[in-house]
Amino acid sequence: MRDLSFGSYFPAISFVHKMDARAKILIAVAYMVAVFLVTAFHFLGFGACLLFVLIATIAAKVPFKLVLKSIKTIIFFVVFSAVLQLFFNKSGTVVFWVITDVGLLNAGFIIARIILIVLGASLLTLTTSPVELADGIEGILYPLKWIKFPVHEFALIMSIALRFIPTLIDETDRIIKAQKARGADFESGNIFKRAKALIPVLIPLLISSFRRADELADAMDSRCYAGSKNRTKYKKMHFTLRDLLGVILVAGLIVGIVFLNNFYLLSELATIAGAL
Question: Cβ-count burial of 193 within 10 angstroms (0-12 exposed, 13-18 middle, 19+ buried)?
């Protein structure tokens, strides 16, 4: 559980850390769009996305091991998605038992897409503090204030949620260790027995979460917090050349993937036309 890097912040002095939070959020969203633009069975686009993540990780001076830890927490989901494609996809030529070549390609495609998205999201939270992330979200959604949308409150909710992910993970780990010390067994039995064994963990975790929320509300109230009413910012956000460079790189990634998709489609059409 301590391997979850999403929601954690890695302090460092780097090119990516100094970027504007709004630019990093927009770049992360554009990167995820690029991942979804990659067409099926065309893994060169995924290679370009992986290269983009590697460059960003090096520029952020974040240890690769810390970024890769985020994958360990989604292994079950990745394996489950791949198994569904392997055993329930009937199209294509059978390779082994009921597994087809199309099923293998689909499984690899889904695995690559999920892993790349998680890596990009983890890198965003590792290089952006919760306060900067909240300010960035508020800055991006600022035009929605014209329609009376509570932009500041929404950004605050997102910031608090991300901030308490590592805290709740540590709390869960402590509760599990305490229950094991009292003789609780979370590893034996079928899936239903294991789910039932987690009830003594969930109840104190919920109580602890509500207690933390109540303490946070009291702390905010004692400091006369009044939402977005007449609030000013100590640090002003400004777009710089490094932000422009990041936007150009992610725009080049999207253009490159679109080019690869069109090139792949044209080559397939040429092959079909040649066969005819």
Answer: exposed
Is there a contact between 249 and 54 (Cβ–Cβ < 8 Å)?
no
User: Which residue matches tokens 């991006």?
Assistant: 140
User: Rounded CA gap, 44 and 41, in Å?
Assistant: 9
Residue 2 · residue 84 · CB < 8 Å: no
* β-sheet bridge partners, residue 96: 99
Pairwise CA distance, residues 176 & 119, whole Å = 28
Alpha carbon distance 161, 18 (integer Å): 23
User: What pLDDT band is residue 248 in, cutting at 50, 70 and 90?
Assistant: very high
What element of type H or E holds 228? none
The phi and psi torsions of 9 (rounded to 5 degrees) equal: -115, 130
> How much is the pLDDT for 30?
93
Alpha carbon 79 to its chain's center? 18
- 164 secondary structure, DSSP code: H
Boundaries of every domain in the chain: 1-128+240-276
